[in-house]
Design goal:
single chain, 146 residues, alpha+beta, Sufe protein. Chain: A, three-stranded antiparallel sheet, 3 strands, FeS assembly scaffold apoprotein IscU, iron ion binding, iron-sulfur cluster binding, NIF_FeS_clus_asmbl_NifU_N
Amino acid sequence: MSFNNLDTLYRQVIMDHYKNPRNKGTLADDAITLEMNNPTCGDRIQLHFIIEDDTVIDAKFEGEGCSISLASASMMTQAVKGKQVNEALEMAQYFSQMMLGQEPETDDLELGDIQALQGVQKFPARIKCATLAWKAMEKAIDKKNE
């Protein structure tokens, strides 16, 4: 597949997650909830997680912002559901490295649609949009472990 076709496909995946977000909504009051924002562009994400026995049982988000920010939150919640906490954190580390243009090792990570965001690294001002939900997830897990 040519680069232009791949780029078009990735844009379509991002727009699909933006227009049809997965896991949008809230969870019960006992869920871990964390809100973060990106004051540079106005993105705001509120994440809700249920973690039991070191496994992400459920993940949802609410928020407003650009297509990259909201698509990334949709992809992240979809990717981490059912994963062990250490796997979710490994995915977050991989994602951060990918946004910095590094080529991290994936081992056995199931990345799915997340790969569609790799083109964001070409636009430094948009990296914070893409990483907002991932950083919030890391903080939510830290909050759970306190």
